[in-house]
Design goal:
Number of domains: 2
Radius of gyration: 21 Å
Order of helices and strands: HHEHEHEEHEEEEEHHHHEEHEHEHEH
Strand order of the largest sheet: 1-9-8-5-4-2-3-13
CATH architecture of the largest domain: 3-Layer(aba) Sandwich
């Protein structure tokens, strides 16, 4: 079905195709060329991390983080269940056990007050997810992690250029992971980045990134030949991906401003219904500097959500629910466990949350159309 208002629409905003042509003319299509280095420099400069490395995906960045944390079979990693499968998969692939903790009802992030009870003798790391670009309670989490000598990894896939106060998300923990999938704000089709915030991890990260070799040292003239020295894989993306991404980085400020305006317009148009208690919309605290990544409704029930999805679909609007909680999925039950009893908030949110279309080329007229259909639906509901 062709939708008048799709859920997402990949876009070109500047010199993407020009950069790709430049990469081809330079005769460097494999990774770690000029555009890769420019992307690294942009991330390090704009985010303030010690070192950035592009990866072929956000999943790849998470896999590198699991390696760098020294995850071994049987180690436990505390994380929310309300997240994408890659958050858990990257650590399960190394034999770790995901320990799922419930989320907060306001930010939909891991509930920092419930983490301590989940820490045990096998706990190796705390993996936080900044849902919708809203910061987790990082000060509390970092203090708790320091007390127990745990790694802190930030899944900041949705949080590029978001801040908690003056700190960019992804640069607060030991490691941060970004995604440039076509559904994100800044895109390269597939792609991601690992942010390394501990200088002592940089050398090993480069080795992992270069298939377990010290080729980066060779390129810098630090060794006269490179060799296989450790575990690793081919995590770096092609130069064509980096060329596309660099053009997006050049326009990142504009892209974020557009999305935040669309987010604000959704909030303005839907506030009257939210004020009536018909549904909830995102509430962003002043100290949370978000990036307009997504806009959602929290509806009264799962059944109502299904009816609204179908109603919007009839108007050629594609709205989607979000994650099936990992703790209730087949693999989650097989590989992980729940800490602290019930996952009440996670279950309740996952059943009622509906993501509305939001993409760079969307217009306020598009939003007016979506809102009109939502209003029409609830007028119909009131007559049932």
């Amino acid at each position: 079905m062709k939708y008048k208002i799709p859920f997402n629409k990949p876009f070109i905003v500047g010199k993407e195709l020009y950069n790709i042509a430049q990469a081809v003319q330079q005769g460097r299509l494999s990774g770690d060329g000029e555009f890769t280095r420019r992307c690294h420099a942009w991330l390090e400069s704009h985010l303030g991390c010690n070192k950035a490395l592009l990866t072929h995906s956000g999943t790849g960045a998470l896999e590198m983080a699991a390696h760098l944390c020294g995850i071994q079979p049987g180690d436990e990693v505390i994380m929310p269940s309300f997240t994408f499968v890659s958050t858990a998969n990257a650590f399960v692939a190394r034999g770790a056990v995901p320990v799922f903790v419930d989320i907060r009802p306001d930010t939909l992030n891991i509930d920092e007050q419930k983490i301590a009870a989940a820490i045990g003798s096998k706990t190796k790391a705390i993996l936080v997810v900044h849902y919708a670009g809203i910061a987790c309670a990082m000060d509390t989490i970092k203090k708790l992690a320091a007390r127990h000598s745990l790694w802190v990894v930030e899944d900041a896939a949705q949080a590029l250029l978001c801040r908690d106060g003056e700190r960019c998300l992804g640069t607060i923990g030991h490691l941060g992971c970004l995604s440039f999938h076509e559904t994100k704000n800044i895109i390269s089709g597939e792609g991601g980045a690992l942010l390394i915030n501990v200088p002592e991890l940089v050398e090993r990260a480069e080795i992992l990134w270069e298939k377990g070799t010290d080729r980066k040292k060779f390129y810098r003239g630090e060794v006269d030949k490179y060799a296989w020295v450790d575990l690793g894989s081919s995590y770096l993306p092609s130069e064509l991906t980096a060329a596309f991404l660099m053009a997006q980085f050049d326009e990142a400020k504009k892209i974020i401003e557009v999305r935040k305006r669309l987010f604000a317009y959704y909030s303005e148009r839907l506030k009257p219904l939210a004020d009536q208690g018909i549904f909830q919309i995102p509430a962003v605290a002043d100290h949370h500097h978000h990036n307009g990544h997504l806009f959602y409704l929290l509806l009264a029930s799962q059944d109502q959500r299904s009816r609204l999805i179908n109603y919007l679909k009839q108007a050629s609007i594609y709205a989607v629910f979000h994650y099936v909680p990992l703790h209730s999925s087949p693999a989650g039950k097989r590989f992980g466990r729940v800490a602290g009893g019930e996952m009440t908030v996670t279950d309740r949110i996952s059943e009622r949350l509906l993501r509305l279309p939001l993409y760079f080329e969307m217009t306020t007229n598009d939003i007016d159309f979506v809102v009109a259909q939502i209003e029409s639906f609830f007028e119909t509901e009131s007559c049932l």
